[in-house]
Design goal:
The chain is α/β, with parallel strands linked by helices and 537 residues long. The longest helix has 24 residues.
Length: 537
């Protein structure tokens, strides 16, 4: 393939299903597209937008699977395609078209915390990898840096972009410290023999295809899925009394959680919203108990968002060992335990959270675990630290045990109205400094895979933290993370999801031990395990 013989290049803009979200993100998307077009044209290429701006809707995104299918029918099957992402996007809108497309594919994202494009790119990348679709990806802050331009030139010439994946290696039990491999393998055998159920309250409605695991793949690990209707959760909420909900809110207040209450339902957090979430917390716990669930995922999805407040306060509370007690017929449910919850019913995170929680308990580590979104990051330098510090963030599912002072550091703020029309409280806070193990379960080549590594959660000055919060979603909790032996570009090139699972360990040596024990467990459960980055204590 010679220079620039791929003209024209068709540009696709994938978006959300919600009109208000697409309208709010359109300016950033339009600016991104212009930067891409300018860069391609400067190299002699030509870009043709594959679908028009919709003046009535005031955006030019693909906003449904139906529309995506229609658009890809108009693109020549061998033509090069660029998917430009500057916003949260739902992969299912374009996945059908991309799976059938034969031409070179490039995903381009703006490196910015203000938009959700980075997570959107990783989400789509993972969905394409799961589907076996070849793709390349590029990212840039200003689209004039050598890495971006060099990658673009290569894609225009060769139809692909090579990435450095030297930080990834297959798990080898001989590298494991002490008896970590033996302990992890024995744990997995016990888990498989005992079997476990993970509950799914809704799935797939947000187009996160890479988050879905076929039941037959999970069965080999001794884990089975209970597919619960979200309407069952709403129905169960109706059986919870006002007094029961008030007791949960009183428990939060007694533990020191600080709710930022106002009076305007449309834009502020109100006691009625939190009480609705307290009913969901009780209902979710009872529903999980009735089905024998060892972990639970609630997908706060289209339809559910019109009936009840956001699930995030519920999720964070369930993920914490110290949480409000829930009773049924005089019996306390899951006493002395968290009920691991995986945000948006991400089944890959569900398997990960189940294994992590139980293995960490066996190892004597604090077992609370959560997923985050890989949101953004930048270099930070002062007299104590000189490193690229990632900002990981999730919409509220973080257990307060991840904060330095537990519930006393938890702040309840209203979910952004753009995404959460009925509101509800987040669990806002900054994750404490310490060593963590990160991981991701994913599907590729028809098999379950597992990537893991160690990292350090760090403390940044208040001014830096506040500035970073304003660059992302200020109502949500965050974690400042320094990866070990992995550059920014290596992480983006490899990581098979916008989601990442984290759990704390007592120190660095414990992190290495726990990481290897968990990798050994995942391999025994039938997953292809990989160690990423530095792995020495």
């Amino acid at each position: 393939m010679s220079d620039f013989d791929m003209n024209p290049i068709y540009l696709v803009a994938n978006g959300d299903f919600r009109l208000a979200v697409n309208q709010a993100c359109w300016q950033a998307q339009s600016e991104l597209e212009q930067k891409i077009i300018t860069a391609v044209e400067a190299l002699g290429g030509a870009v043709q937008r594959a679908h028009p701006y919709n003046a009535a809707q005031q955006h030019g995104f693909i906003d449904s699977q139906k529309y995506g299918m229609e658009i890809f029918k108009t693109i020549p099957p061998d033509a090069p395609v660029i998917v430009a992402i500057a916003a949260e996007q739902h992969s299912q809108h374009v996945l059908a078209g991309l799976m059938a497309h034969a031409g070179p594919l490039l995903i381009v994202v703006h490196w910015s915390g203000r938009q959700r494009g980075i997570g959107g790119m990783l989400n789509l990348n993972a969905a394409l990898a799961k589907a076996g679709v070849a793709y390349s990806a590029l990212w840039s802050e200003n689209f004039d840096d050598p890495a971006f331009l060099g990658g673009l030139v290569r894609w225009l010439k060769k139809g692909s972009v090579k990435r450095d994946l030297s930080h990834v290696r297959k798990y080898d039990k001989t590298d494991a410290p002490g008896d970590a491999a033996r302990v992890g393998k024995a744990f997995a055998k016990t888990l498989r023999a005992a079997q476990a159920i993970v509950g799914l309250c809704g799935e797939g409605c947000l187009g996160i295809d890479n988050a879905r695991i076929p039941d037959e793949l999970l069965a080999g690990a001794g884990v089975f899925q209970e597919h619960l209707s979200p309407t069952a959760l709403v129905a169960k909420m109706r059986s919870v009394t006002d007094d029961e909900a008030r007791a949960v809110l009183d428990w939060f207040n007694a533990r020191g959680m600080q709710f930022q209450f106002g009076a305007v339902e449309a834009t502020e957090l109100t006691p009625a919203q939190v009480l609705n979430q307290c009913k969901m917390y009780i209902a979710a716990t009872r529903l999980a108990d009735e089905s024998g669930c060892a972990a639970l995922g609630i997908q706060y999805q289209p339809g559910l968002d019109a009936l009840v407040c956001a699930s995030d306060l519920v999720e964070g509370a369930l993920n914490n060992v110290e949480r409000p007690p829930v009773w049924s017929d005089g019996r306390e449910l899951y006493p002395g335990d968290a009920l691991p919850h995986f945000n948006q019913a991400d089944q890959c995170a569900g398997l990960d959270s189940l294994v992590t929680y139980r293995l960490w308990r066996e190892l004597g580590y604090a077992p609370e675990t959560t997923l985050h979104e890989i949101r953004w990051g930048r270099q930070y330098t002062d007299e104590n630290l000189d490193a690229f510090v990632w900002l990981w963030q999730i919409s509220g599912a973080v257990p307060p045990a991840h904060f330095a002072n537990g519930w006393r550091d938890a702040r309840g703020e209203r979910q952004p109205p753009l995404y959460f029309p009925l509101g509800g409280s987040t669990i806002k806070g900054v994750s404490k400094p310490g060593w963590i193990v990160w991981s991701r379960v994913f599907v590729a080549e028809g098999k379950l895979h597992f990537d893991t590594g160690i990292a350090q959660a760090v403390e940044l000055p208040l001014a830096e933290t506040q500035e970073r919060w304003q660059l992302v979603t200020p109502q949500w909790p965050l974690m400042h993370v320094v990866l070990q032996g992995i550059s920014r570009d290596q992480m983006l090139a490899r990581h098979p999801s916008n989601r990442i699972q984290v759990a704390y360990t007592p120190d660095k040596a414990s992190a290495v031990y726990g990481m290897y024990a968990k990798a050994a467990a995942m391999k025994e459960l039938g997953l292809k395990a990989h160690i990423c980055g530095e792995a020495n204590a």
